């Protein structure tokens, strides 16, 4: 609770003793007569009485001044009333200003509600400090509420993940049971077929053994046409044995496939210096492309292989067989393209024929203004990317006519496309912000390893 300020009405005092029970520390009253401005004014804090004759009585100290000086409110000499040249040791609540005792008695604030300065200061301090406590309580309550909200959200996410995990485990268990039952069914099927084949063979052996030669010569055609055992045929999948069709297009498997390709021996892949646009700068080692500001651009010698309007460049190695994979460090670039194109792609002009992803001869993954998309023949397919990759891997598998974009760190597939490529492919790049760098050189893994992965993913 805030301390209520003491309110006093000042009048000229007399030599008469105060009435019994009257508080001389805060209130001084005088009979209705001419007031002598030099009458003593009683201190409101300590009750000490001091007389004023233009200066304080020797030995008498204003408790208000002492208290305020000790508390740091005043520094140096106290301010004086301009009208009465007396110390401003009272506060007028009516006019909200500091006054002297003469102002309260005979001055402009006569009859107003006045309070000793020390009491007013104490009340303000108490009020301010009391107001801080509710604010602290509100802040703590808000922080506690926010913490509980975050914990509730985390708990909800945890519960959702646990439910999803349980659901997936149940699906896996169901699939395991189904496949196991399918295998048992197939085993019984082939067991019966084997028994029938054995019986047919026994009959054939008996016929060949016990039939006279003359009859064998006549019945040759009948013997060769052996009755096929019921249910026996070439081994193949059945409806009961087929697995989930989605397994043939598993992004996880394709990502592992792409990562495995990188484990093969190195083959040199660099940017082809002849194709680099004048809008780009190529490092001396031919592994980094950097977008140039206008003032830093120079006109390179004319070359029919060079892109002259779009910030494009091509790789140095042609691909028309086998399986190949490489990784591009895209860093913080906000605008780039990575992919493949035919060697016959247009190099000159600002039309779509020379713009990667906007013609039928190029396939690229594009990043611009925070969005990722796959571009081919002028059509953009938006891609959902959980986090912005710092590097992008590409895989070209010529036998299966597959182009794959993936994130090497997590083996997450960003996009894959199957297309009947009709001509050799070249790595294709475009940069319109900062730099990109070839990290992993083109790699060719062992043929047997790729054949196994290709079989699993097809």
Please describe the topology of this protein.
Blueprint: E1 41-42, E2 49-50, H1 63-71, E3 90-92, E4 97-99, H2 101-105, E5 114-116, H3 117-210, H4 213-218, H5 220-224, H6 251-261, E6 266-267, E7 280-282, E8 288-291, E9 312-314, E10 323-329, E11 335-342, E12 362-368, E13 371-376, E14 379-383, E15 391-397, E16 402-407, E17 412-418, E18 425-431, E19 435-443, H7 447-457
Antiparallel strand pairs: 1-2, 3-4, 3-5, 6-19, 7-8, 8-19, 9-18, 10-15, 10-19, 11-12, 11-18, 12-13, 13-14, 15-16, 16-17
Helix pairs in contact: 1-3, 6-7
Describe the overall structure:
Helices cover 31% and strands 21% of the residues. The protein is of the alpha+beta class. The chain has a domain at 249-457: SPRY domain (Jelly Rolls). Strands 6, 7, 8, 10, 15, 16, 17 and 19 form an eight-stranded antiparallel beta sheet that branches. It has a six-stranded antiparallel beta sheet with strand order 9-18-11-12-13-14, with no helix packed on it. Strand 16 (402-407) and strand 17 form a beta hairpin. Helix 6 (251-261) packs antiparallel against helix 7 (447-457). It is elongated, with a radius of gyration of 49 Å. The protein starts with 40 loop residues before the first strand and ends with a helix.
């Amino acid at each position: 609770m805030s301390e209520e300020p003491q309110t006093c009405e000042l009048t000229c005092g007399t030599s008469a003793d105060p009435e019994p029970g009257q508080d001389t520390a805060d209130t001084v009253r005088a009979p209705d007569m001419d007031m002598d401005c030099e009458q003593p004014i009683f201190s409101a804090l300590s009750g000490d009485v001091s007389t004023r004759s233009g200066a304080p009585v020797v030995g008498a100290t204003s408790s208000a001044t002492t208290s305020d000086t000790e508390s740091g409110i005043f520094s140096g000499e106290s301010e004086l009333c301009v009208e009465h040249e007396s110390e401003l040791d009272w506060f007028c609540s009516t006019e909200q200003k500091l006054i002297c005792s003469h102002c309260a008695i005979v001055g402009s604030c006569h009859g107003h509600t006045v309070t000793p300065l020390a009491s007013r200061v104490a009340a303000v301090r108490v009020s301010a400090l009391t107001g801080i406590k509710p604010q602290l309580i509100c802040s703590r309550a808000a922080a506690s509420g926010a913490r509980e909200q975050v914990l509730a959200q985390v708990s909800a996410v945890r519960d959702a993940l646990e439910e999803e995990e349980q659901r997936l485990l149940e699906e896996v268990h169901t699939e395991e049971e189904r496949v196991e039952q399918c295998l048992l069914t197939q085993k019984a099927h082939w067991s019966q077929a084997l028994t029938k084949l054995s019986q047919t063979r026994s009959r054939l052996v008996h016929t060949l053994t016990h039939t006279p030669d003359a009859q064998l010569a006549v019945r040759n055609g009948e013997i060769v046409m052996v009755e096929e055992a019921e249910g026996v045929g070439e081994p193949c999948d059945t409806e009961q044995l087929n697995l989930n069709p989605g397994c043939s297009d598993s992004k996880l498997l394709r990502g592992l496939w792409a990562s495995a390709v990188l484990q093969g021996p190195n083959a040199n892949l660099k940017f082809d210096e002849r194709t680099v646009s004048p809008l780009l700068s190529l490092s001396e080692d031919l592994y980094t492309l950097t977008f140039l500001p206008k003032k830093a651009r120079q006109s390179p010698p004319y070359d029919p292989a060079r892109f002259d309007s779009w910030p494009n460049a091509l790789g140095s190695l042609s691909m028309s067989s086998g399986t190949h994979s490489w990784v591009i460090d895209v860093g913080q670039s906000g605008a780039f393209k990575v992919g493949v194109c035919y060697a016959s792609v247009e190099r000159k002009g600002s039309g779509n024929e020379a713009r990667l992803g906007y013609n039928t001869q190029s396939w690229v993954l594009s990043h611009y203004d925070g969005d990722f998309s796959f571009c081919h023949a002028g059509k953009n397919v938006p891609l959902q990317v959980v986090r912005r990759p710092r590097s992008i891997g590409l895989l070209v598998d010529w036998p299966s006519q597959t182009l794959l974009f993936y994130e090497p760190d997590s083996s997450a597939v960003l996009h894959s496309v199957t297309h009947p490529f009709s001509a050799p492919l070249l790595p294709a790049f475009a940069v319109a912000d900062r730099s990109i760098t070839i990290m992993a050189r083109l790699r060719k893994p062992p043929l047997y390893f790729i054949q196994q992965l290709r079989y699993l993913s097809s």
